[in-house]
Amino acid sequence: MAKIFRQAVMAVILNDEGKVLIGYSPRDRSYKFPQGGLEPKEDLICGIKRELREELDYHLDEQYILSIYEEKINYPFPPDCHPVWMGQELSIVKIRFDHTTNIIPQDDEFDELHWILPHELPNFETEYRAQAYWRALEIAGLI
């Protein structure tokens, strides 16, 4: 069976200073945006809410969603990384940070979080996701 791209969603969370949230993932040994695969028949809003709760204990109120973009990004996984998926195709959700909720890294998804200016992204090792992440920031109008 041929491998396909996993349908996924990622959050570009923007604070009042124009910075975006990235985190270091000890599991992936690189920096990444909050993101994850969609469950079967799960819509983007339900998916991003679930992923943010699972990864950061962040409870997203839909009023903070700024945009959901039609254009998607994708990246291939490293060879032999996953038995089913060849990579991820991500929908991008731009979110204004809600200061009334917490961001607390959960399990091994993230162990450190950083608010960075969008143009600083290349200073952080995002490995095989780098080009896709840069494109996501372009789509979101941040660079």
- Per DSSP E runs of 2 or more residues, the count of β-strands stands at 8
Order of helices and strands: EEEEHEEEEH
CATH topology name, in short, is Nucleoside Triphosphate Pyrophosphohydrolase
Known CATH architecture: Alpha-Beta Complex
Q: Look at the structure and name the CATH superfamily.
A: Nucleoside Triphosphate Pyrophosphohydrolase
Helix content: 10-25%
Mean pLDDT: 94
Name of the CATH class? Alpha Beta
Gross morphology: globular
How many strands, what sense, and barrel or not for the largest sheet? 5 strands, mixed
Radius of gyration: 14 Å
- How many helices? The count is 2
**N-end to C-end Cα span:** 39 Å
**Ranges with pLDDT <50 over ≥5 residues?**
none
Cofactor: Mg(2+)
Protein name: NUDIX domain-containing protein
Domain Nudix hydrolase: 4-138
Keywords: Hydrolase
